[in-house]
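Quick start: read one record
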Amino acid sequence: MDPDALDKAFMALADPVRRGIVARLARGEATVNELAEPFAITKQAVSKHIQVLEHAGLVTRSRDAQRRPVHLDAAALEELTAWIDQYRLIAERRFRQLDELLAESGPGIPQGSQQKQEEELK
């Protein structure tokens, strides 16, 4: 994923209102009025939040007569998930390796090793 697009997406998702909008859009399209309902902010402020999400490529707008519903771009979220997953898989692999190493070393830490570790921490 393009680093600039990644930055924009994560910056857009850093705001709790925008995360709430994304969560609502995950259930289906909605208008600005519908998206504004749960928030104690103006419709104009919600529109600005939508613009940020749109600029980040996370949502799109369409025209249906006079309605302008906002849609979640599932493909963009999938790209973010794939980016996160690559690091999650690396971390999981390392944890599995650590589990294997600990299982090979037997139960517990030998008494002398534990005392040495405690002394090093002081």
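Strands lie at 59-61, 70-72.
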